[in-house]
Write a structure and sequence with these properties.
single chain, five-stranded parallel sheet, four-stranded parallel sheet, 9 helices, elongated
Amino acid sequence: MSAPEVVVITGMSGAGRTEALHALEDAGFYCIDNLPPTMLTALVEQSGLRLDANRRLAVVCDLRSHDLFDKLCGELDRLRERGVSCSVVYLDADDDTLRRRYNSLRRRHPLADGGISVSEAIEHERERLSFVRERANMVIDTSNLRARDLRTLLVEEFSRIPAEQALNVSVFSFGFKYGVPLDADIVIDVRFLPNPYYDPTMAELTGHDELVRDFVLGREETRAFTAAWFNLLDVTMPGYVAEGKKHLAIAVGCTGGQHRSVVIAEATAAHLIERGYNVSVGHRDLPRHVKA
């Protein structure tokens, strides 16, 4: 079955609706929290879903909209009559888990008005939601589910892109003499490689020049290093994807950010692209060495 154009997230307060919405936002959905169901059809029409095959919508509809929530099933029927594919995700958890989560967060249950207890509010909410739970396409019990696992489950179900593509990887070169980048997740030092700067024919060139690239990549120590470095990436990158990490910055440094780091950063980016990752490559300090 093709991925739906509209995903409605609903279910018990404290069961993970916000986490679910964030997961779908990372998967490319346009997301809105606490949408009154009566606005759903109008929102779909105005958002251009019918005109753009890549535009998809995820909304959270719940009892915060009070009596308007009862109209949710009717709105879903109207959308389906108009040819809009919809899916309802119902998030649930057992009462003990919901009580424990509210106690730990010290938040007021949205139905705990008029002096009723959290337990009473949970019971009332479960009764009010029973009609939409029966209509749900997907019911997820989050009682023993970690937030990371919930995100993974939803992305696997609704994302149109491979998991690797959801991780945005930035690879960039830099020069240690200009400071170590503070925003890098991984810093790799390639100053142990022979420096082309000391060869007069390459001193003014950069890692983008073929002569420098061949000099760096053609050496035995570079081949041994890149084999080990790429193997390390092949081991760790799937872990970052599984953890739900959305951005990873890899910094490759040499002395001035002109020769070796540029070559290795480009090779690193090429390797990751070949493995299916969404990669951008840049060179922080290279403009310092390029004559206008």
